[in-house]
Design brief:
Two copies of one chain form a homodimer. The first copy, chain A, has seven helices and three strands, in the order H-H-E-H-H-E-E-H-H-H. Chain A starts with a helix and ends with a helix. The first copy, chain A, is α+β, with helices and mostly antiparallel strands and about 110 residues long. Helix content of chain A is about 65%, strand content about 15%. The radius of gyration of chain A is 15 Å and the shape is globular. In chain A, helix 2 crosses helix 5. At the A-B interface, helix 1, helix 4, helix 5 and helix 6 of A face helix 1, helix 4, helix 5 and helix 6 of B. Chain A binds a DNA duplex (30 and 30 nucleotides) through helix 4.
DNA sequence: ATACTATATGAATGGACAATCATATTTATA
DNA sequence: TATAAATATGATTGTCCATTCATATAGTAT
């Protein structure tokens, strides 16, 4: 594995807002407005993230009236689900680790 | 899954240097000097990363003379191997994505 | 055409953190 | 005990990027 793949993978998936957006889209296709409602992330911020996710090929988009409906890529859906399962399975270990007590991480809860 | 677990998981694993250190330790236990040789990461930087990884419970340490031998945690080893497999499997998709062309990612290759 | 809704874009700001450098600590050996 | 080897620690710096705010664009309906 080379640095480029690694960086891209962790950059794109490693942001909580983007991961939440992808988790929402794993359930069903959604417009931007629906994503905003589902995630409580502010609209322009969602748009910025969608730009990133489109750029990655992690999502596709189609028009419906003046709405844009986003759809998650099948492989990405699989990855998101696996990571979610993994984190849930190791939840206790992860939470008990010292990193969880660092200021910058604790304060964002 | 909550934000805290997510943040910890991606913070600890999502750094390329730390991931390379963990990949090395997945093969065998190593002293700091051996990690430095294996990864070409500068010594004090390795020590900082080991501090983080110890803090996480991702590695354990034992003394041998004036050396410190680090050992990877079994669960983390499993995670590192799975992520490596995953990235290798989706390598082409990841590389072809627009993110890979961003300045800050391209220039680090 | 106008007003309204939905979404996108651009610029600015602040915070997180990896890497580096210098130095301290620990252990071994002469 | 003095010196050398191995590792850790502290402080600093630069960069990346998520968020926010303000505004632009596009589509719809009246």
């Amino acid at each position: 594995m080379e640095k480029l793949e690694f960086k891209v993978f962790f950059y794109a998936l490693g942001d909580y807002s983007r991961f939440m957006i992808l988790s929402s889209l794993a359930k069903r296709d959604m417009s931007v407005g629906e994503i905003v409602s589902a995630t409580s992330i502010e609209q322009s911020n969602v748009s910025h993230h969608m730009h990133c996710l489109l750029n990655c090929g992690f999502v596709n988009v189609r028009k419906n009236g003046n709405k844009r409906i986003y759809k998650i890529n099948g492989k990405v859906k699989n990855t998101v689900e696996k990571i979610t399962e993994h984190i849930d399975a190791y939840r206790k270990d992860i939470i008990s680790c010292g990193i969880a007590n660092r200021r910058y991480i604790s304060k964002v809860i």
